[in-house]
Amino acid sequence: MKKAILIGASGCGKTTLIQRIERQAMAYDKTQVVRHYLNFIDTPGEYLQQRRLYRALIISSVDADEIGLVQDCTRENTWIPPSFATTFAKPIFGVVTKLDLAKSPKQVEYARGAVAMGGAGAIFAVSAVTGQGIKALYDYLNLPIRSSLHRVRRARNRVTAQTVLSPEFGDIPLDELDGADQAVLDMTLDGGR
Predict the structure, then answer these.
(1) Mapped to the 3 state alphabet, what secondary structure does 12-50 carry?
(2) CB neighbourhood size of 49 (10 A)
(3) Residues 6+ apart with CB under 8 A from 190
(4) pTM for this structure?
(5) How far is residue 131's CA from residue 1's CA, in Å, rounded to a whole number?
(6) Which residue range(s) make up the domain with 155?
(7) Same domain, 134 and 152
(8) Measuring CA to CA, which residue among 9, 11, 13 is closest to residue 124?
(9) How many domains are contained in the chain?
């Protein structure tokens, strides 16, 4: 499991992406300060948009395993400087957001190019609203299945002898669950929480 810090301009979808992956209610909430989540560190867009605040990004990145550069595909410009990845001594991945709002493939390619020029290795195109591309990012970050099991608990999905049916990931083999995942599943089956 990797903890990632997400860096991108204001309104590019960092918080919404985190809300989707962390299974939180999606609600617009302008990030004013650095926020720590279970698997992510969310940063204000101004930290990227104002060069004098780069130090805050560098300091905040110390707690992360990887750096995620985030670009909204509906924007015609980028705030991610070329070779920005050289600022950090950590692996960099890119996230192109708002696929559901893209009007043409050219918009997505421009956004991919922006995060690639910034130094991102792996690049993921996602829609936090529709869920498109989320599983690939989820797998890349090696996040625990536990997040999807919270949804199992709420939705009371079907559980068989071998698998848990998850809306985002299909059938999850029970032998892939770690101890914490199994505890959540046991509470679900016992009617707890």
Answers:
(1) CCHHHHHHHHCCCCCCCCCCCCCEECCCEEECCCHHHHC
(2) 12
(3) none
(4) 0.75
(5) 20
(6) 146-189
(7) no
(8) 13
(9) 2
Q: Which position has the token pair 């550069």?
A: 69
- Which residue in 87, 80, 95 sits closest to 59, CA to CA? 87
Q: Which stretches of the chain score pLDDT less than 50?
A: 146-158, 160-162, 165, 167-170, 191-193
Q: Can you tell me the distance from the alpha carbon of 72 to that of 1, in angstroms, rounded to the nearest whole number?
A: 25
How far is it, in rounded angstroms, from Cα 29 to Cα 6? 15
How many residues are recorded in the chain?
193
Question: In the structure encoding, which two tokens stand for residue 74, read together?
Answer: 């509906």
Q: What single letter denotes the amino acid at residue 74?
A: T
What are the DSSP calls for 47-76, one per residue? HHHSGGGHHHHHHHGGG-SEEEEEEETT-S
